[in-house]
Amino acid sequence: EWSVLWDMLLARGYRVVAFDQRGHGSSTIGRDGISTESMSSDYLAVLEYVDAQDAVLLAHSMGGFLAVAAVLDVPGVAECLSGLILMSTFAGDVLNGAPQNKAQIPLIKSGAMVKLAANDTTGTLFARSLCGDNPSPAMLDAFLTVFRATDHRSLLPILQALVDEDRGDRLGQITIPTIVLCGDKDTTTPPSQSERLAEGIPGAQLHWVPGAGHMLNWEAVEEILESIGTLSDVNIPVTPVIPLTSSP
Hints:
44% of the residues lie in helices and 14% in strands. The chain is α/β, with parallel strands linked by helices. A six-stranded parallel sheet has the order 1-6-2-3-4-5, sandwiched between helices. Strand 2 (55-60), helix 3 (62-73) and strand 3 form a beta-alpha-beta unit. The longest helix has 14 residues, at 36-49. The chain is globular.
């Protein structure tokens, strides 16, 4: 999901650390299972393992929800970070103002979405609904490849947490320099969710990406690079840390 951005960051001399979320890609669920607590704690495990002391945490969708939880609830995470980029994401209460989520989440829970995504026609329509004005066929195919390879049933606890949990009233406790990115055509995490993040986190910058939808990792690579540069100390090369496979 981050292949294009990864290569561009490496070409600019950044050290880049990316990891598959618990229960995604090559990462197993583990003994602690799937929950906000276990998955946000994984952020600290990765940061400590790579000895990150000045990292910019770039987190998308579910990954952003977990990043907020990690910064607020997991001691030691904030101390590893020099910047936070929250893109196409939310503090919780994911159904609020998002009719697309109200339709899609029950379909994922029932297993119907997996069946729809398995069909090339309906799968492409589903992928297209997550994008903005001009998604490339390669982008749609890449999304479907990741989605089809994921065991969504095992991830239902974190999907429910996105609905039930909300840390919006604690955003003022985040003191890390933060940029919020949102596509103005995003219907999965609509602009109101990003506005809430930017208004709640002291000093946060809110940047809109015209014509982009939910998949900013492909739709807004230049804007992401600019945001990382904004949060980087020109004298200290930061380490972008990216949770992979970020949306159940």
